[in-house]
From TrEMBL:
Cellular component, GO annotation: endomembrane system; membrane
Keywords: Cell wall biogenesis/degradation, Glycosyltransferase, Membrane, Transferase, Transmembrane, Transmembrane helix
Membrane disposition: Multi-pass membrane protein
Protein's name according to its UniProt entry: Cellulose synthase-like protein B3
Gene Ontology biological-process entries: cell wall organization; cellulose biosynthetic process
Species this chain originates from: Gossypium harknessii
Amino acid sequence: MANEIPFPLYHKNARKNTIQRALDTTLLFLLISLLFYRLLSLKTHGFVWLLAFLCESWFTFFWFLIVNAKWNPVDIKTYPQSLEPRFPELPTVDMFVTTADPVREPPIMTVNTVLSLLAVDYPADKLACYVSDDGCSALTFYSLVESSKFAKLWVRFCKKYKVQVRAPFRYFLEDPISTSAPNLEFKEEWEKIKAEYEHLCLKIKEASRKSAPCNLTHDFAVFANIETSNHPTIIKIISENCEEDVPHLVYISREKRPKYPHHFKAGAMNVLSRVSGLMTNAPFMLNVDCDMFVNNPQVVRQALCQLVGRESERDMGFIQYPQCFYNATKDDPYGNQMVVLMEYIGRGLAGLQGPPYAGTGCFHRRKVIYGAWPGKAASIN
């Protein structure tokens, strides 16, 4: 009996870049010609010509590096539908969300980020979401507790109707009821979910106006008379994946002491890695900032197609997703969308060894962060 051909998980397609390469080659020839002309005429024109030669040489060198980075752009096509046939036992994934200030980063923004992660198209028992709060805010914890109740409705609704954008604040900006002809059941559920989300926003808004979001008792007692820059570690399991189809949700506020550096986001990521290693210890980790959301529910499966589809783990350490921005101005005159960086240079670097880590929107192998599995660290030491 012949061996079956395994399902492909991803494919790297080189983009046609003939015209751009011809233009870049022509420009390189012109720049080199200019430099030779400057060099041969130095004795005639003196210091000003030398200064121009040095500036143009630096420009040529920098331009050459940019062209080299985008010389071989590629598109990576993933096949998430082939993931489970190849790996019936899907790997677990830990998702990290970092926030630091409930004033500059309103909790409702963090809540939307968390909800979009909890609702991704992946088995809930294979996911865990950890929220790092460097502001040690009772308001942030209260918002996450309330959002965990809404998540039970939101996750079920998204998976039932295959919602594409799973951050509620973006999803409810459009009215699918008025733009299409949905069935009666969808219309009733949509209105119910929207009303529940608006109620959640109202509760968080009212809580933010108070000195304390609620009575600081029971789980909230640790926030009574606490100092944001001087407090012990706080770890709270907000929800567990038991019967509801919702991933684990864990709140973490790491220890801070005066005169001891906490290293900002890097320190928070270090604590998230260690705590998750003791609790769920997933082989893959996703980190996002609190002002981001998932705009594709297949994001976990697509990343794993590349991470587990390699012959060797050493071939790929992390998957960096590009960032997209909503509500941009027309034609983006200030370049806020970073199209050149994300679309051209990023895809060009993907044709080399891949883009650098951007600090957010990235899937890591835990081995890359640890250097070994947590259980083997002691034997190595």
